[in-house]
Prior knowledge:
Layout: E1 10-11, E2 18-19, E3 28-31, H1 41-50, E4 57-59, E5 65-67, E6 74-75, E7 85-90, H2 103-119, E8 131-133, H3 151-165, H4 187-197, H5 201-211, H6 216-229, H7 237-250, H8 259-267
Parallel strand pairs: 1-5, 3-7, 3-8, 4-7
Antiparallel strand pairs: 2-6, 4-5
Amino acid sequence: MDWVGIHADKSVWMNKHYTPGRQGRIDKIVIHHNAGVRMSTEDCWHTWQTRKASAHYQVEADGTIGQLVHDWDTAWHATGANSTGIGIEHANIAGAPSWGISEATVEAGAHLVAALCRAYNLGRPTWRVNVYPHQDFNSTACPGLLAGPLRERYMARAQAWYDHMTGAAPAPATTTPTTPTTTDTRQETTMRLIHTTTPWGADAWAEITEHAGADGLDQLGCAIEQKVWGAPHEVTWDEYDWHVRRAWERAARVANLSAEETAKRIAATIPNQPEA
Length: 276
C-alpha cells in the first residue's frame, strides 16, 4: 500500500452500483464491516454485482487493502453520507454474533484512515468529527466491533499514524495480536479477548457495557469470586472465559443480578471449584 499516494495493494473496479463523480467535497470517512467471514476484495465485488451497494475500500483479514471505487466517485455505502464520504469495509474473521476482526485488519484500516485524512486535509482522525460509523447514517449494527470495544484502539492507531505522517511523531510501534495468559488479571482485557474470540462474546460485552461500564466487569468478577471461592483469586484466562460464558448462558441479563445471585448461578455450573 502506498500510504502517501493512496494506491491500494490491489484494485478490482466496480462496473455498476456507484455514481461517477461527487456532489460535494470529501469531508468524512465512514467505517463498515462486511458481516461476512474473511471476505476478499474480489468477494465484495461479486457481492455488489447483485446488491445495490459498494464501498471505496476493502481491508482484508490479513491487512491487504483493495480498492473498488475511485475516491473521486461516489460509492453507495451510507445513505446521506455518500456524496462526501469515503467508505471503508473491514473483513470479519468470525461469524455472528461476534463478527470478530483481526489485528491486521484493525491496523491496516486505521493506517488507511490516517492516510485519507492527511490526503484530503480532514485533520487528525476524530470519532464522529471526520470518522463515522455506518450506524450513524442507517439503521444497522455496522460496523460491529469497530464501533464498540475495538473503537478506541482503532482510533488511537489512526491518530498515531496520522501524527507520524504529518511529522508530529515518530512511526508508531508495530503491534501484535494480544493473546491470553494465565497471569492476566486485567478484566477488561480478558473481556475483550472473550468478545473477539468466542461466538457469544458480543452479547456478553453488550450486557456489561450497557449496565456497568467496562470496569464493571472487574467489580462484578471480584464479588463473584468472593462468593464462590471465599476470596478473590487469580484465575486463568480459560477458566475465566468458561465462568463468564456460563454466567451469560444462565442469566440473560447478569449485570442486573446481585453478585450473590450471580455467584449461585455460576457455582451451579462448576463441577470442581478451584482453591482460593
